[in-house]
Automatic annotation (TrEMBL):
<dbReference type="GO" id="GO:0016887">
    <property type="term" value="F:ATP hydrolysis activity"/>
</dbReference>
<dbReference type="GO" id="GO:0017116">
    <property type="term" value="F:single-stranded DNA helicase activity"/>
</dbReference>
<dbReference type="InterPro" id="IPR021886">
    <property type="entry name" value="MgsA_C"/>
</dbReference>
<dbReference type="Pfam" id="PF16193">
    <property type="entry name" value="AAA_assoc_2"/>
</dbReference>
<dbReference type="GO" id="GO:0003677">
    <property type="term" value="F:DNA binding"/>
</dbReference>
<dbReference type="InterPro" id="IPR003959">
    <property type="entry name" value="ATPase_AAA_core"/>
</dbReference>
<keyword id="KW-0067">ATP-binding</keyword>
<protein>
    <submittedName>
        <fullName>Replication-associated recombination protein A</fullName>
    </submittedName>
</protein>
<comment type="similarity">
    <text>Belongs to the AAA ATPase family. RarA/MGS1/WRNIP1 subfamily.</text>
</comment>
<keyword id="KW-0547">Nucleotide-binding</keyword>
<dbReference type="GO" id="GO:0006261">
    <property type="term" value="P:DNA-templated DNA replication"/>
</dbReference>
<dbReference type="InterPro" id="IPR003593">
    <property type="entry name" value="AAA+_ATPase"/>
</dbReference>
<feature type="domain" description="AAA+ ATPase">
    <location>
        <begin position="39"/>
        <end position="151"/>
    </location>
</feature>
<dbReference type="GO" id="GO:0000731">
    <property type="term" value="P:DNA synthesis involved in DNA repair"/>
</dbReference>
<dbReference type="GO" id="GO:0008047">
    <property type="term" value="F:enzyme activator activity"/>
</dbReference>
<dbReference type="Pfam" id="PF00004">
    <property type="entry name" value="AAA"/>
</dbReference>
<dbReference type="GO" id="GO:0005524">
    <property type="term" value="F:ATP binding"/>
</dbReference>
Length: 428
């Protein structure tokens, strides 16, 4: 057993050994009470790597005393599923833990799902991807619980580390390890809520430390060196990566420079520069918009510079762009106006294009009545340039107003012009 990784050996054997995730498996939760009373429902466990999905499945199996089988949907075949179905027929009821359940194919489903439905197989699926996006509806419908796990707190991780240091049977308790509380907290902080990373890091630190007088002495520089990048999380293209993109945009929209820079740092550490640049460019027009129309050009220049430079230098222009957007006036009026127009079209608010707006650059246009257009440049209007009162929208939507100005930044000036032109149109 000691040849197995520490993180594997320290998995909880029952519900009472689970550290963290008390919001779904704590003693006061419905799930805990159901399992303690002998009922285990099929469920989906959703969350980032290393935060306890497999551990909770093992703990449920240990507390329920039911036969436990584990498969990974990435490489499990139909025969693997059939073997578990056969076992369920023999013993009456089993728990199947299916990791990466979002990769479950139709053939596997057809073999397994009837037995999940009749209760002979209790399915505990685990996924790092959003189950409402990536897990087949047939599986979701048979899982009574869809549980979202949280990253473990620093205190939770510190407790796991302490448990591993004290456990003589499965952990490092038989070894005299000299490690300070400060070093334990540093490991807990570096693991960024990932229990597997924390225990893997602890094990690496143990093997990298010197033994003096039959004691293993943990030194600060070993902890610092091995902890350098362990806090980075969020696989490219996965659900958490898109959560980071969402958090970045919402932080910029909320003008929180510190949060925006924090999420930008995480995204760049994951290395998908193109996705970050695309999102920043969208944000410039979606969230800043007409309130500061120069931002679009600035962000475009910053993202092009970033792509030319590559990482790590790309972080410099992108940091400038993010802070400028955070502290800029903001408006979503332009794209909101477009969305309102699209909605109107889908609601059937369409009509004939006024004759004077139709193409008149061909022989016969006058015959069709495509006449009467007034060229605005022929009607000077102060310093505005040219404007003339004529109808542009179809008759049945002529009075619709899709654009609603936001009185912020540069758009305040545009809003004043918009209102003035409206007053001319009304003849006031």
């Amino acid at each position: 057993m000691q040849n197995e990784p520490l993180a594997f050996r320290m998995r909880p054997r029952n519900l009472n050994e689970v550290v963290g995730q008390q919001h779904i498996i704590g003693k006061d939760t419905a799930l805990y009470k159901m399992i303690e009373n002998g009922h285990v429902p099929s469920m989906l466990l959703y969350g980032e790597p290393g935060i306890g999905k497999t551990s909770i499945a093992n703990a449920i199996a240990g507390s329920s005393k039911l036969p436990f089988f584990s498969l990974n949907a990435t490489h499990a075949g139909k025969k693997d599923v059939e073997q578990i179905v056969s076992e369920a027929r023999l013993v009456g009821k089993v728990i199947l833990f299916l990791d990466e359940i979002h990769r479950f194919n139709k053939l596997q489903q057809d073999t397994l799902l009837p037995h999940v439905e009749n209760g002979s197989i209790i399915l505990i699926g685990a996924t790092t991807e959003n189950p409402f996006h990536d897990v087949n509806p047939a599986i979701r419908s048979r899982c009574g619980e869809i549980l979202q796990l949280k990253r473990l707190s620093q205190d939770d991780i510190a407790k796991l580390i302490s448990n591993a240091l004290e456990d003589e049977e499965r952990g490092l308790g038989k070894i005299d390890i000299v490690i300070s509380e400060e070093q334990i907290q540093k490991i807990a902080l570096a693991s960024n809520g990932d229990a597997r990373k924390a225990l893997t890091l602890l094990e690496s630190i143990y093997y990298a430390s010197d033994e003096v007088d039959n004691k293993t002495i943990v030194q600060d520089h070993i902890v610092e060196h091995l902890s350098e990048r362990i806090g980075v999380y969020g696989d490219k293209g996965g659900s958490h990566f898109y959560n980071l993109l969402s958090a970045l945009q919402k932080s910029v929209r909320g003008s929180d420079t510190n949060a925006a820079i924090y999420y930008l740092a995480h995204l760049l550490e994951n290395g998908d520069l193109i996705a970050v640049c695309r999102r920043l460019l969208v944000m410039a027009y979606e969230d800043i918009g007409l309130a500061n129309s120069a931002v679009g050009a600035h962000v475009y220049a910053a993202t092009e510079a970033a792509k030319t430079l590559g990482l790590p230098e790309a972080r410099i222009p992108l940091a400038n762009a993010v802070i400028e957007m955070c502290l800029s006036p903001k408006s979503n009026s332009a794209y909101s106006a477009l969305d309102a127009a699209i909605s109107a079209i889908h609601e059937g608010k369409t009509g004939e294009i006024p004759l004077h707006l139709r193409d008149g650059h061909y022989a016969g246009a006058k015959t069709l009545g495509h006449v009467g257009y007034k060229y605005p440049h022929d009607y000077p209007l102060g310093t505005f340039g040219g404007w003339v009162d004529q109808q542009y929208l179809p008759d049945n939507v002529a009075n619709e107003e899709f654009y609603k100005p936001v009185i912020a930044g540069e758009e305040k000036r545009m809003a004043a012009i918009y209102d003035k032109l409206k007053s001319f149109k009304k003849g006031t």
